[in-house]
Write a structure and sequence with these properties.
Blueprint lengths: L2 H14 L5 H14 L9 H8 L6 H20 L26 H14 L9 H14 L3 H6 L5 E2 L4 E4 L8 E4 L2 H14 L20 H15 L15 H16 L4 H12 L5 H4 L6 H16 L6
Helix pairs in contact: 1-2, 5-6, 5-9, 6-8, 6-10, 10-11, 10-13
Length: 312
């Protein structure tokens, strides 16, 4: 079997069982460009490494592509089309260095205040009210921006204060409870646009009544940050992102739990489920994300050790 035929069958199988496979499919198509006419069993680990070692490929991208090819070859090994998996043994060490930006509440206010100026041009795809509601919704629910932009009015149940998120990042759906502030926000937003009963309408729609694209909204958010003067301190070239509202939601929630004296370790699994994480590790990383959160954790530890009598 040629590599190209194997890739085509593999992608079709994975999508048949409900997986999107968008990024991995692109990696496999690129592999086909180089080795598509080679027999599957003739591919060597050296050839795979040569494909992975493209100039200017960072460790994270290298490992992601490595995982895609490893799964592909294992699939065909299980179907007895390969006697072994031709993957290189040496994998570059990778330590994530990117730190999400956690917005302060004052910065959130600056962003909201700058929305009218950001959206004043008639060429803007979203109205100021839509962008403002989207920002508050993302901060109030911790939802991924892509999930929010795919929502329809029919996915809302404002009476039960819950929203259904379909086909999320990990190919599953989940229910997201809504706080009363978010319910009030959405009711006002839908009433203002007269779309409370427009069930098939996008929840966050463009001026021409279509779903808003992720890239245009990201671009508007970058402009919004510039107008509001919200930027990273120091020499980092990475700008605050729309997705960082999700991280901000998680960190602010954990901080409030610490302040309230709640058992954060017990509550972490609930937060993990709410955010749609596949494992608890993805949620635990938020415990060390801001000085304020570390301060709250330190106070809790000192109270545990000294019983509130510091310096004993």
């Amino acid at each position: 079997m040629k590599v190209c035929a194997a890739v085509r069958m593999y992608v079709l199988h994975r999508r048949t069982v409900g997986q999107k496979l968008e990024g991995p499919a692109l990696t496999l198509q690129a592999f086909c460009v180089r080795y598509g006419d080679v027999t599957l069993g003739a591919i060597t680990a050296a050839e795979v490494k040569h494909f992975l070692d493209v100039p200017h490929t960072g460790p994270a991208t290298w490992r992601r592509k490595y995982g895609v090819l490893r799964d592909f070859f294992k699939y065909w090994q299980c179907r007895e089309q390969l006697s072994s998996v031709p993957m290189p043994r040496e994998v570059p060490k990778y330590k994530p260095t990117f730190v999400p930006y956690i917005y302060s509440r004052s910065e959130l206010r600056l962003l909201l205040d700058a929305v009218p100026r950001c959206q004043q041009r008639t060429t803007c795809s979203a109205s100021a009210e839509t962008l403002r509601t989207l920002l508050l919704f993302l901060y109030g629910t911790g939802m991924r921006a892509g999930e929010a932009l795919r929502l329809r009015v029919a996915d809302l149940n404002l009476e039960s204060a819950v929203i259904t998120v379909h086909n999320t990042k990990f190919y599953k759906s989940r229910l997201v409870p809504l706080g009363q502030d978010v319910v009030t926000l959405l009711r006002r937003y839908l009433d203002t646009s007269g779309r409370r009963n427009a069930q098939n309408s996008p929840l966050f729609e463009s001026k021409d009544h279509r779903h808003l694209g992720h890239s245009p909204i990201d671009a508007r958010f970058r402009r919004l940050c510039a107008l509001a003067g919200v930027r990273r301190k120091g020499s980092s070239a990475r700008s605050p992102r729309l997705h960082d509202l999700r991280h901000t939601f998680a960190v602010h929630r954990l901080t409030e739990w610490y302040r309230a004296g709640a058992d954060v370790q017990v509550l972490l699994p609930a937060l993990s489920t709410y955010l749609g994480h596949v494992d608890l590790h993805s949620t635990q990383c938020y415990l060390t994300m801001t000085p304020e959160l570390l301060a709250q954790a330190s106070q809790r530890f000192q109270h545990y050790v000294y019983g509130g009598q510091h310096g004993e």
